[in-house]
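Input (Glycolipid 2-alpha-mannosyltransferase 1):
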Amino acid sequence: MDEPPDEQPWSQYEIARRIPKYYKSNKGLINATIFTLCRNSELFSILDSIHQVETRFNTRYHYDWVFLNEEPFSEEFIELTSNLVSGRTRYGLIPGEHWSYPEHIDQEKARKIRESSYWRPILYGSSESYRHMCRFNSMFFYKHPIMRDYDYYWRVEPDVKFHCDILNDPFKFLKENGKKYGFTISMKELPNTIETLWHHTRKYFKSLPIDYFSPDYRRENLVKFISDDSGISYNYCHYWTNFEIADLSIFRNEIYEGYVQYLDKAGGFFYERWGDAPIHSIVFSLMLRKEEVHLFQDISYEHTVAQSCPLDKEIRKTAKCVCDPIDSEILTDDYCNVRFLEAADVEKPEDFDDYVSKIYGRIFERIELRQERKKIFKENIRRESLRRRKKAEELRGHQFSLKKSR
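Output:
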């Protein structure tokens, strides 16, 4: 790629480009970018993520970093983020039609649904912007004029951590090994957020000339990862898409495009709370061969409720890891990483069963500790209640004595 000049504007949807003062050309690297969808208000959260990625990986490679926002980025945002990135930074504005309601959506109906008591206790259940974000990440990010310049992308969000050096270029790994999609953590979606998603998925895929649920295709794809009954129902397993590294051709694909357009017309982004994670996971588990999807077991990633950590001691030593694999619960039944290894016929790491046993042991220790603390808390309350009762009785006795003496 030619180096873009450090000036603006270039297009209606690219508001700024920056090149580091001591920029080293990334010629010879994969045509790829790190990608972040972010708001100005998340500046300091994304700065921490940038520092993590740059320190652990990108200072050795200088890949571009693309930032997109539905509103123009502030000068402060551009200045501080570009100051940390070792590669070129590009700042884009999302087209209005990619962050708004399509004509077929009844906005009043959508508002009443998300503001109802049903959605209030559900994570992001009442959020309008979250629904627009999930639709954008499902249908539009790869179509943005800036993103059209790249063949691969790596999604990075605010408030993420990488606890080990990333020793190899994951873009290069994907390309050289014929991989199309990579992830670190898989878990289960909240069932009540996607009640009709699987129904519409089967309807769309059954309309195609290829039967991706047939025995022949099930031997090649990852239906076993997303379904326990050969595709009749969805088991809610999904790749956690806040970290995904992918060949963008799988998004720029007739089957994928047809699928998300079909889902968009069904209205579930707004009438339910369909996330991009189950959508990406379902379609790629069906249309890709199992060997084209890769679990990065050597990358330690953490975001909000979950983290991964390499089991291999030598990798942890070489990569200067600061994580303990026993603290990670992603190998338990509450997550789907083990299911993926089995569905993809991937050999489990050495000492795998031993680590799983230790992880469950630590979980039980935490449960016992919580129960013990709860017991102590209740006992303290009981004692405090007795103390107050005794004090009240003493006070009443004292008052009675005073009255009697008068």
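Residues 1-9 have pLDDT under 50 and may be disordered.
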